[in-house]
Amino acid sequence: MKARIRLSAQQLLFPRPISASTPQLLRRLIPAGTCWPSSHFTSSLPRTAAVPDSDKPHFPLQPSANPFPDPRIIPKGPPHSRFCNKRSGSIKPRLPTGSASANHTHANLKSSLAYSSAAVAVAIVVALVSWTIVDFATAANTGTALVSPLDTRPVDVMSPEAAAAGHVGNLTPEQEKKLRKLWNAIFKICGVADINANGTAESAAPAKPAEEELESPQKRRFSLFRWKTSESQPSPPGSSTGSVKDAPDDNDKYGQTKQFHKTLASQSPESIRQTIWSTVKHDHPDALVLRFLRARKWDVEKALVMLVSAMHWRHSDMNVDADIMKNGEAGAVYDEKNGAPDAKKLAIDYMAQYRMGKSFLHGKDKEGRPICVVRVRLHKPGAQSAESLERYTVFIIETARLVLEPPVETANIIFDMTGFSLANMDYHPVKFMIQCFEANYPESLGAILVHNAPWVFQGIWRIIRGWLDPVVAAKVHFTNYRTGLEEFIAPDQIIKELEGDEDWEYKYEEPVPGENDTMKDTETRDALLKARAELYREFEGATRTWIRSPDTVEGKQAKSQREKIAAQLRMDYWNLDPYVRSRSLYDRKGELLPGGGVNWYKKENQEPVPQTNGNGVHSPGTPAENGA
Fold first, then answer.
1. Are 572 and 539 in contact, with CB atoms under 8 Å apart?
2. Domain of residue 525, residue span
3. Which of 32, 39, 162, 369 could form a disulfide with 14 if both were Cys (CB 3.0 to 4.6 A apart)?
4. Compositional bias of type Basic and acidic residues: which residue ranges (predicted)?
5. Is 16 in the same domain as 64?
6. What does the DSSP 8-state code read for residue 438?
């Protein structure tokens, strides 16, 4: 109670006239229009005309159409309030006509004032006691601490555990159920779903889909699949997960529903399966699938549509693994000298962005997320072709994926707007980046820092913000100078170009002849791919068992086996990596290590930095978790 309002006994029993210094609580309890004399009723009553502006209340006691009206200290009120009115030059109240005695009236005045003062004092005490009792009772029932409403300290409402919900190793039973459903839907599309005794694929839907549709008419309207049970008509392996509706979701901003249909019609189940597994790389397979579930708010149908559409984009539109990552910088350097005219122009534009350092990866923020710096001032619209910009963007994103160290799953992008002008503004690459992160690399952004943005960017930001999904827009932060970055990055890990303490600057190193000779050993590559394909089948088998009977001993053993296989897949990828991916600048500089992991800060005897998942949660066994 002391923390909420501090009033002395004298103030409670003999309140002063209502003024700007009156506590807010007292102002709410005292009826509007009430006027009180000074302590012991010895001071003169307040004069309306003599109240200085500094003593007037800042807010009216009664609502008014005018948001800032002139306060009225003595408005018209009940009869007893008229005792506050007085004639000029006199402290005595106006005597009613026909009064017998001034002394008698003065005695009545003191009696009325004393009675009113005592009544209000009692009301205040009762209100304060009741308020305190209610707050203590609420705190006891909810298990929360009693906090004063006058306490302006920020309250942390996001616990680390809540921030990491929905990620690998921290799923609720309902989220695990959604994960199993999505895996089963993926298996049906890829032709590897569980086949029961009746020859039908096991359904990933609840036993009573009709009831679910009755509960949610909107979901029925935009549902993409008519889920089938084992008692319904069989659906052959490799077909879609059921009868697909033609009507897209109203929120399908990138036409992914249409692309989903086209992909199922144009690509074989095995092709879709291979694209999904090639996308996994060193990730936990569940981590990849969960990205799409979280992005679609755990709607299995929408997550499946998004995932299949993204796989089509990787395989058919961008050729991510078969071209961009396989040929890399060395392939572009070769085309600069020996390519056909179109390929040569594309390669020149592509490599120009590397050499100028339009963007680069370096360092980690306080959450362990890799940092990508984009120097916006270096971009000149039309200087490079749109295709080269897109390939360059995808290469940077894919390389950023490689430097993620579990349990980190997101990156931090700094758009350095220092020196930006309208001559640097180009909406096409902005739209492409937005589509990449919203449609094809969901849940990959941890923070977006727009640094040192000039005033001219305000109008541009209003346009860009309208294109962003609200979830992505919420991750955008505007920072200025070093102090703004220090909220996200340790001072000794902010590069000097951004006014930090780290003595590091970007310098491009050209591809070294022979750095990709390992890729010529196709025999070893094929053997590694064959062994990896076996791990895929083992993971699929364990997942089918987990889907079929998650609560049985067999299902729990299968779940544990999945984790072991996922760890093998991660280690196995780094053995395969030099045979399928061209070396990058970060490989040549020794920042991306051969067996996985990164070394951004080359310091001797450096203590390992505790890793988090980008949401503030430390990985098991780190000093932070052990209380170090």
1. no
2. 520-581
3. 39
4. 246-255
5. yes
6. I
